[in-house]
């Protein structure tokens, strides 16, 4: 539990090289610090190591140099305080939506009666009511991704790591899920680190956007997004600063 103003996530001087016939230096001297309850996005060119960095923070990929601290503890493997959402849903296809949402509690041996209210609340909140008995393949792409997020939120993570969670969705569904994600975050205030390819998504969602260099990836710039919250697309997209942030980040990314 984070009780002071120390970073929820602190990465210092992290290195990662993938060994093999063609050795790949994925990350070099990566530094970043994320405050408790902050919403931070990472942008960077394809292959610069964004997913690798996220997986390192999640304890899913080992790293060589430097240090990664989550809530001031060195990351040595996956931990229950960290939830990870990937681009494609990690739901088990042979279980129903309801069973998938309840899976985490079951694996942690939390009694069903204790877990049920939270799962019912998430089902309602994520617009999945009435679909509890469907299997993942019987849902639309947007619903499947909402359910995958629900499955992770059911575990009550303090830290939410998201790797292109809406990357496979159409623009309209993506916009709607961004609004839902912000609504949930506004209520629960997890510390969020999101990898995205969408500059507009990063600006709309984040308190701060980090920009990585090409491989080997390092955090080279950061832009604080000073837009009012709660954010709704219809008001934020009218705010002249929204367009200014998008153009600043586009320039930093070399888009134009
Ligand atoms: N398990 C692995 N074994 C070997 N090389 C890997 C492995 N995972 C990633 N890499 C390499 O590390 C580099 C960074 O990959 P990573 O997926 O982290 O980049 P990314 O910025 O997330 O890319 P994208 O934006 O295209 O998803 C790439 O060159 C990739 O080929």
From TrEMBL:
Top-rank lineage group of the source organism: Bacteria
GO MF: ATP binding; ATP hydrolysis activity
Similarity annotation: Belongs to the ABC transporter superfamily.
Entries under PANTHER family matching the protein: ALIPHATIC SULFONATES IMPORT ATP-BINDING PROTEIN SSUB (PTHR42788:SF13), TAURINE IMPORT ATP-BINDING PROTEIN-RELATED (PTHR42788)
SUPFAM superfamilies: P-loop containing nucleoside triphosphate hydrolases
Domain ABC transporter intervals: 9-239
Source species: Roseateles toxinivorans
Name recorded for this polypeptide: NitT/TauT family transport system ATP-binding protein
InterPro entries: AAA+_ATPase (IPR003593), ABC_transporter-like_ATP-bd (IPR003439), ABC_transporter-like_CS (IPR017871), ABC_transporter_ATP-bind (IPR050166), P-loop_NTPase (IPR027417)
UniProt keyword annotations, A-Z: ATP-binding, Cell membrane, Membrane, Nucleotide-binding, Transport
């Amino acid at each position: 539990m984070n009780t002071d103003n120390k970073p929820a996530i602190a990465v210092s001087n992290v290195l990662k090289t993938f060994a093999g016939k063609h050795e790949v230096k994925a990350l070099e001297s990566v530094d970043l610090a994320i405050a408790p309850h902050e919403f931070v996005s990472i942008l960077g060119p394809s292959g610069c190591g964004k997913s690798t960095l996220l997986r390192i923070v999640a304890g899913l990929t080992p790293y060589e140099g430097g240090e990664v601290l989550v809530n001031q503890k060195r990351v040595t493997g996956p931990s229950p305080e960290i939830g990870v959402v990937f681009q494609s849903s990690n739901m088990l296809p042979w279980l129903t939506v309801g069973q998938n949402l309840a899976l985490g509690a079951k694996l942690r041996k939390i009694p069903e009666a204790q877990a049920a209210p939270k799962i019912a609340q998430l089902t309602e909140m994520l617009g999945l009511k009435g679909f509890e008995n469907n299997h993942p393949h019987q849902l639309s792409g947007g619903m499947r991704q909402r359910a995958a997020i629900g499955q992770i939120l059911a575990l009550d993570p303090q830290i939410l790591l998201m790797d292109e969670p809406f990357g496979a969705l159409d623009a309209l569904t993506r916009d709607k899920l961004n609004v839902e994600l912000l609504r949930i975050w506004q209520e629960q205030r997890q510390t969020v680190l999101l990898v995205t390819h969408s500059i507009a998504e990063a600006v709309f969602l984040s308190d701060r956007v980090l920009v990585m260099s090409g491989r080997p990836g390092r955090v080279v710039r950061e832009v604080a997004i000073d837009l009012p919250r709660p954010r709704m697309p219809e008001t934020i997209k009218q705010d002249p600063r929204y367009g200014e942030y998008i153009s600043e980040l586009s320039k930093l990314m070399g888009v134009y």
